[in-house]
Design the sequence.
């Protein structure tokens, strides 16, 4: 299975999950197992073409796609990724009540990166994205 076919199949599965969720069937055991089975077989058949599955939308993130990792290292597709403005709010909250000196330093560094982005002509609505690499 090539990358385009894998993307199409995984996107269709994501759409199916959305529809099932709207019907309240999303967490039905048999349906859940069937979707996961087809998804896992598609990922296996696609070799290294699939980098990640987006956590919120369950859509495919193919190698070379733009993406983002959350602070908990969960993959997000470009559509689901947080903007600089979204993250600035989180960093500002963390900076006000950090749990540790390390967290305070990280928040300060992140806020400085935000300021640098804006100073360079960037928008709060921009999304800091990376290119997806082969899944490990
Ligand atoms: Zn997504």
Sequence:
């Amino acid at each position: 299975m090539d990358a385009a076919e894998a993307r199409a199949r995984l996107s269709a599965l994501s759409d199916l999950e959305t529809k099932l969720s709207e019907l309240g069937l999303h967490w039905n055991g048999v349906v859940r197992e069937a979707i996961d089975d087809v998804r896992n077989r598609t990922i296996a058949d696609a070799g290294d073409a699939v980098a990640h599955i987006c956590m919120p939308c369950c859509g495919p993130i193919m190698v070379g796609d733009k993406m983002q990792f959350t602070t908990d290292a969960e993959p997000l597709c470009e559509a689901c990724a947080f903007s600089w403005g979204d993250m600035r709010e989180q960093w500002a909250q963390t900076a006000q009540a950090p749990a540790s000196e390390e967290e305070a330093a990280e928040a300060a560094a992140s806020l400085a990166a935000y300021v640098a982005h804006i100073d360079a002509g960037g928008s709060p609505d921009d999304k800091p994205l990376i290119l997806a690499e082969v899944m490990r």
Summary: The longest strand covers residues 50-53. Strands lie at 50-53, 60-62, 66-69, 75-77, 130-131. The chain has a mean pLDDT of 93.
